[in-house]
Amino acid sequence: MPDDVELVAAALAGDEEAFADLVTRYQRRLTAFLAQLVGDVELARELTQEAFIRAWSALERYDPTYRFSTWLFRIGHNLGIDHLRRRRIKTVGITREDGDGEEMDRILPDERKDPLGHLRNAELSAALRKTIEDLRPEYRELVLLRHFGGLSYQEIAEIKDMPLGTVKNKLFRAHSVLRTELASFL
Amino acid sequence: MNDRCREIREYLAEWAGSANPLDESIEAHLQACEECRSTRIAEERLNTVFEAAVAPEDRDLQRRVMDNIRGLENRRRFLAVFPVAASVMMVLVGVALLGGVPGGAAARTSVSSLIAGGWVSLVSSISSALTAWRGAAVGVSRFVAAPQVLASITVAVILMIGIAMVIRRWRRPGRWSGQS
Questions:
Q1: Among candidates A66, A53, A63, which has minimal Cα distance to A22?
Q2: Do A150 and B73 touch (CB under 8 A)?
């Protein structure tokens, strides 16, 4: 099976099927990561699609000394963060107009869009969602990259521009919280 | 929790539940330390929970992405061909307006016959442009630059630039395109 760099080289030479293989390889993990980040599966699919299109358009700028996965996830991550920023600005605008901030600021859960909606155990799904939401932001993002993005510690360190030791330490602490909060399900 | 326990648990947080077999020294520690043993079990279960939490694949997503990419590629190719098409048009119009170039078939061709002649006229014009190079060399050697000769040289240069542009745009040279 060709590795990522070989597939990128083939795509740059005009082989669209090679890029399709990269899409197949990463779409599930990227969608899962973005779904947790933005809290909406449908939106995550759109962002994933956009991330791949941007990756294709910028493929000649990809530096093969880095992993393709980290480059792709960085594109996806930036798209997700941009979306969250826009949503925040939009929400503030609406609440000001309506003069009913509390009501409009609340994001109502939609089961069809719930990133954990496919889990059969509803209690576990709710507990996992709450535990992830309650994590400190610096831990939360690393947990999402690790467990939903399926990235290695080294890849996370590259994406976040952090020393590997810091990633290990933060994920160790995050796991301690997760094990405690989800103890009844483990 | 001593330093060794902390080290083992950091390792378990990274690797428990994965296909990676645990190191012998870690296995020995786990045999002796009950807390680390229970941490290992919890980490393996946590891993299982996360595995199940990743949503199933969207089989249609790849098709949507590739449809979009093919649309982008078609547009890019059209934009790459456009300068050459424009150059060729300029050649034809320029040659026709000048009444042709010295020594070429187009010299005897009017605008209407150029249009009617289609690709034959195009080939003839290119051949005329090549002839013009020779004419230009002769003209320069005699320090005489006839307007038709200069026009032909300009047209030929435009054509060459157009071809160079299309070759450059059609390919997607990366900084590492030579690598496999």
A1: A53
A2: no
* Predicted-complex ipTM score: 0.76
Tokens (6 digits) for A82: 């941009």
* Largest Cα span, chain A: 58
- Model confidence pLDDT, tens digit, residues A15-73: 889 999 999 999 999 999 999 999 888 899 999 999 999 999 999 889 888 899 999 99
Token duo for residue B109 = 């061709």
Q: How far is CA A120 from CA A117, A126, A128, B32, B49, in A?
A: 8, 11, 13, 37, 11
CA B82, B83, B89, B92 torsion-angle sign: negative
Contact B62 A175 (CB under 8 A): no
Residue pointed to by tokens 């831990």: A139
Look at residues A142, A141, A57, A186 and name the one whose alpha carbon lies nearest to residue B65: A57
Does B58 contact A31 at a Cβ distance shorter than 8 Å? yes
* Residue the block writes with tokens 């300029």: B90
Among candidates B13, B62, B174 on the partner chain, residue whose Cβ is nearest the Cβ of A59: B174
Token digits for A184?
A: 């009844």
